[in-house]
Predict the structure.
Amino acid sequence: MATLWVREYSELAEDGRGRSLQIGQEPGVASQVVSFITSQSSTAFNGATRYIAIYGSAAFHYRISATPVAVTTDMKVPADTMLYIGVRPADKIAAIAG
């Protein structure tokens, strides 16, 4: 069984000159851990969440929506890779091994 770690953020971090960076501003607003082989979804994102960071212990495909079901034709992420994504509050992420 693989694991997907999800960190939720409401803001992007800024550099010393006030420019937005493509990373979340800590502290995040929530964290989730999703175990998966077949498609498994997270709980709904926090109402303040605008960005997420995801990291999987194995390669996976993902889908984000209000009722996601991931399939192996969805975007693939290699194992041990951090990815930042813009999302809508109350959506969920589903992952499937692949």
User: Anything to note?
Assistant: The two ends are 12 Å apart (CA to CA). The chain has a mean pLDDT of 97. The chain has no helices and ten strands. Strands lie at 2-9, 12-14, 20-24, 30-36, 40-41, 51-56, 60-65, 75-77, 82-86, 92-97.
